[in-house]
Sequence to fold (77 residues):
Amino acid sequence: MTCPRCGGTDVKIQFIETSAKTRTRKAGCLWRLGRWCLIVCTGGLWLLIGRRKSTSNTKIRHAKRAICQSCGHAWSA
Fold:
C-alpha cells in the first residue's frame, strides 16, 4: 500500500473505535407482577431476595484507517 500524498510505502493500518451504543433492558411487568405475588404468598420473606439487575448490551463500531509514517497523512482504507 502506498500513500496517496507522498507515495511512501511505510503505511500502518489501525482500527479506530468510531461509536458505541449501550442498550439497557430493565425488568418487565411480568417479572414485577410475579415478584409481588411471591412477596404476598411468603408473607414478605421474598423481600430478602435481591432485585433483578438490569442487563445491558454494548455494540461498538470500528473503522479502518491507514496512516503514512513518512508524512503523517491519514485516510480510510
